Amino acid sequence: MKKLKQIVVSIENSPGRLYEVTHALGNAGINLRALNLVDTGAFGQLRLLVSDVTKARQLLMEMHIPAMVNEVVAAEIEDRPGQLAVVLKPILDANIQVVFMYAFLRQSSQRAVMIFRFSDNDRAIAVMQENGVNLLDSEKFGILENSDIAS
């Protein structure tokens, strides 16, 4: 499966709240694979790719932090100018919208990993595969997923 399960939580924009969440996950032995925090006013939207999705979601719910799970696509691309545009052009041509994205650089391989949510993840996966984009599945990303989690 080429889609990853991502946890999404809203946390208060208050001192220490991000620390509280990341500290609790760390204490539970859950490794952060990628994260993105966006300010939305009184709250921030925290998107997390973690080593154990089920355990992380349960922990957050126990902390009274509602945790949604949705699906994203991780694409590994060369870390050089213009490479993202090369990946996005076929997506644009297929009339698929990027809902959100974030990125990080894998220092060990000199490659960037782009995390996407598309208007149609399945079509986007097909288009990217047709265009030779390397997609990372949960195993390659080091994520333990439970298929019973609602997306």
Account of the 3D structure:
This protein folds into 2 domains: 3-70, 2-Layer Sandwich (VC0802-like), CATH 3.30.2130; 73-141, VC0802-like (2-Layer Sandwich), CATH 3.30.2130.10. It starts with a strand and ends in a 10-residue tail after the last helix. It is 30% helix and 38% strand. It is an alpha+beta fold and 151 residues long. β2 and β3 (43-50) form a beta hairpin. Strands 1, 2, 3, 4, 5, 6 and 7 form a 7-stranded antiparallel beta sheet that branches. It has 5 helices and 7 strands; from the N terminus they run βαββαβαββαβα. The longest helix is centred in the N-terminal third of the chain and has 11 residues, at 17-27.
Task: Supply the key terms.
single chain, 151 residues, VC0802-like, globular
Rg, nearest Å: 16 Å
User: Level of helix content?
Assistant: 25-40%
CATH arch. level architecture of the largest domain: 2-Layer Sandwich
What is the assigned CATH homologous superfamily of the largest domain?
A: VC0802-like
Alpha-beta classification: alpha+beta
Number of strands: 7
Poorly predicted regions? none
Portion of residues in beta strands equals 35-45%
Whole-number total of structural domains: 2
The CATH class label of the largest domain is Alpha Beta
Major beta sheet summary: 7 strands, antiparallel
Order of helices and strands: EHEEHEHEEHEH
Spatial gap, N to C terminus: 14 Å
Q: What is the helix tally?
A: 5
Question: What best-fitting shape do the alpha-carbon axes yield?
Answer: globular
InterPro entries: ACT-like_dom_sf, ACT_dom_pair
Organism: Desulfosarcina widdelii
Protein name: Amino acid-binding protein
Pfam families: ACT_8
